[in-house]
Amino acid sequence: MNAHSPMNAVGTKAAKAAGLALSGVTKSFGAVDILHGIDLSIAGGEFVVFVGPSGCGKSTLLRLIAGLEEVSDGEITIGGRDVTDLDPSRRGIAMVFQSYALYPHMSVAENMGFGLRMAHRPAAEVAEKVRAAAEILHLTPLLDRRPGQLSGGQRQRVAIGRAIVRDPDVFLFDEPLSNLDAELRVEMRIEIARLHKKLGNTMIYVTHDQTEAMTLADKIVVLRAGRIEQVGTPAVLYDDPDNLFVAGFIGSPKMNVLPARVIAGGVEIAGTPLPLSGLSAPDGAAVQFGIRPEHLRPARDGEPALPFRVDFTEFLGGTTYLYGEVAPGLSLVTEGARGLAPAPGTVLRLAFDPADARLFDREGQRIRPAA
Questions:
Q1: Cβ neighbours of residue 216 under 8 Å, at least 6 residues apart?
Q2: φ, ψ of residue 190 in degrees (nearest 5)
Q3: I want to staple 57 with a disulfide (CB 3.0 to 4.6 A). Which of 89, 181, 226, 255 is the partner?
């Protein structure tokens, strides 16, 4: 790698893989508790996404890491260094917000280098870091333009470039794609994923969009009402949710959930007995049965199956979803073969592999199979 390569100018993976840890972090505004004892460990170089519904505390948690809000209790460390009470400028972080916040009278190059100039860095260093960041983000032909001459995606790349030139230990993204249209969001997701692969820095990304979480994250942190519900890879959260909240939040369409009763050798749903093995709940127990749409299939002759009356078909090109009911008031979604379009009112028989079923108790907590 030569001395003028982008990686040398803005940091290397080995040098910038700083881990981060939160221990017992709480945040209150007056008498209102927002975050409740957050414990989280993020390895150096991980791409971690905070996801959850509006008001769950994900942006507040990011602002605590950045130092834009004061921690009520607990400790935050970055690279093994306690930063709980440090000024944001001394934490080794750079933040990208939903708003681009670019200076309209400055060029792209001037916007990207503004923070370094305010820190009184040498002009040659500023120019080299701006050049290297622009090369990484494919902004080189645009360096002399003003923000008003750029598209939304280009402006967001400039905002990311402004963060890159600071050479941070940790990047913090606060819903950076929310102002973009659907096509640009997809393009920018790819750009951010490539950026992480190239730089290797630790990145923490806040979004309410579970598709962004699933496609970008090494690890997802699902938050609800100021508490962590589950932490894991996208595959773990999708396949092995700890509770109904995670099961319903991760995945689109979300997991089907139907009331059921445990019987000998399985469960009964709307009067239909279905086989399940390894049940750890007693016979007669009321449970909630979960199954992903893609795990339902047409039943073979003589196979136990759920009756499913089709109400509506949604054709999405490569995928078809069928919406309907297994009994009055019990809705279900199943993924069908391409081109499958049964008429409304058609009754199908649906079966599944018992290994794909998930059971939850009345409180929504996962009932895992007996060992």
A1: 47, 49, 189, 192, 193, 196, 205
A2: -65, -40
A3: 226
Among residues 44, 52, 89, the alpha carbon closest in space to that of 68 is found at 89
Distance in angstroms (rounded) separating the CA atoms of residues 117 and 10: 16
> Within the chain, where are the H helices?
6-10, 58-66, 108-118, 123-136, 152-164, 182-199, 210-216, 234-239, 244-249
Distance CA 309, CA 296 (A): 14
Q: How many CA atoms does the CB half-sphere of 28 hold within 13 Å? A: 9
DSSP secondary structure code for residue 30 in this structure: T
Cis amide prior to 253 (ω within 30 degrees): yes
Paired tokens of 134: 């622009």
Contact between 62 and 172 under an 8 Å Cβ cutoff? The reply is yes
Distance from C-alpha of 187 to C-alpha of 204, rounded to nearest angstrom: 19
Asked if 115 contacts 167 with a C-beta cutoff of 8 angstroms, the reply is no
Length of the chain: 371
Q: Which residue has the tokens 């009278």?
A: 105
Confirm if 369 and 276 have CB atoms less than 8 A apart. Answer: no
What string of pLDDT tens digits covers the 371 residues of the chain? 444 445 455 554 444 578 999 999 999 999 999 999 999 999 999 999 999 999 999 999 999 999 999 999 999 999 999 999 999 989 999 999 888 889 999 999 999 999 899 889 999 999 999 999 999 888 999 999 999 999 888 998 899 999 999 889 999 999 988 888 888 888 889 889 999 999 999 999 999 888 899 999 999 999 999 999 999 999 999 999 999 999 999 998 999 999 999 999 899 999 999 999 888 888 999 999 999 999 999 999 989 999 999 999 998 888 899 999 999 999 999 998 877 888 999 999 999 999 999 999 999 999 988 76
Gap between the Cα atoms of 346 and 217, Å rounded: 40
